Amino acid sequence: MTITFVCTGNTCRSPMAEAVARRLVDVHGLREHGNRVVVRSAGVAALPGSPASLGARRATAAADLRLDAHRSLRLTERLIAESDVIACMGRGHAAVALEMEGGAKVRLLRDEEGRELEVADPFGGRQEEYDRTFRELEVRVGGLLAGLFTEGFARPGKGASYVVLGNPVAHSLSPAIHNAAFRRAGRRAVYWARPTRSAECGTVLRAVALAGGGGNVTVPLKEEAVASLEIASRAVAATGACNTFWAEDGVVHGDNTDVEGFLGTWRGALEGLRLPAAPDVLVVGAGGAARAVLYALLNFGLAKRIDLWNRTSGRAQRLVEHFARVTPPDRLSGHRLRAVDSWEGAAPDVVVNATSVGIDGEGLPLDLHGLASPPRVLIDLVYGKETTPLVRKALALGISARDGREMLVRQAEASYRCWFGEDPPAGVMSAALPQTRH
Ligand code: ATR
Prior knowledge:
By secondary structure, the chain is α/β, with parallel strands linked by helices. The protein has three domains: 2-150, Rossmann fold; 160-256 and 410-432, Rossmann fold; 272-403, NAD(P)-binding Rossmann-like Domain (Rossmann fold). It is 37% helix and 17% strand. A six-stranded mixed beta sheet has the order 6-5-7-9-10-8, with helices on both faces. It has a six-stranded parallel beta sheet with strand order 13-12-11-14-15-16, with helices on both faces. It has a four-stranded parallel beta sheet with strand order 2-1-3-4, sandwiched between helices. Helix 1 (13-27) packs across helix 5 (127-150). The radius of gyration is 24 Å and the shape is elongated. The two termini are 45 Å apart. The structure holds 2'-monophosphoadenosine-5'-diphosphate.
């Protein structure tokens, strides 16, 4: 099979896509079953023989890929005729390929949600634009190759697939950080984001795990993923939420590494601050993330008093009743976990935001001014391209605050340990996170 990536001048997008595809063909062992797989790139207005742009070379080098030997190729009818798949970066390129009789071979690279959107052209832009396009291409080219398996073009080889299942998953940074760790550790594995409907969650989870891979589960599937496990960890059993899965000897296992992720974040956030050994905590939210937070606070004796507030108060009440049932009495005594109708007038030492408010860069789950006194620490489990609104507000009030990026990395490192029984290469995951804009 021959896959040709097409852009304009063949100095940025399509060479980066080609480099990503070559590596994926390799890690997936696509050539192992006697498949002939050729990957190349061409431009509709390329000056043949031009080198890859500096921005593209830097972006790929950061992912241990090299474009130094790349020389551009002009798209011709002959190249089109020799190709089985012509993956275009934009509609204009697809139109040219269609004029050259590309027919049904011509397609736009789809984004994580399956939409045929153009890939942004970073040409002449800042390095971070090249880096962003590169990350985008990693996801899209991964999706293209995965699609080819199901279309019967190729059979997957030995490389294992890891996926994050959820909806939406477009904002997920998990593919970037896990693929960086896989590459550094030299693993034959690839991590994808897969938008997943509730009805197919169990089938996909078990199929991926039993094929020798694994993955993560995110909003809103963490609770229903539990039903697909044969062996659930203590954290899964107690929280009723699973965010990590894999299989051993044909048996599907699940864990909730958000607990470990939160524990690490908590310790880091409180370190060096003169706070009581067991402070008073206000937890906002009563979804899957709140379950991991409450489990950690209760089972590790981290808090003296825990107030739980949620927009829908019945859900907070049910969560309190749930933890009263599943928490060993010796762990519960001394902690006063209660659902509260209002956060106004509360005076917690630490506030934890476990709602999804702020995920789109807007909104506050509570008004910090409405508390009787400002907390010392704010932990926002939300993260985004920019500092979250809640963290921004807290910092302006002089409160020590951190967003969910640390928890993301710590839960990802714990997931890696579940899958491979060893630590991921140190520091690689956090280094792979894009910089937050302030
Ligand atoms: P997760 O697994 O990330 O916790 P979830 O189970 O969907 O996701 O829970 C989302 C949490 O964010 C819930 O506590 C939800 O409150 P409700 O139970 O009232 O739905 C909270 N949340 C979402 N949008 C909110 C908003 N606009 N204001 C306040 N809370 C909100």
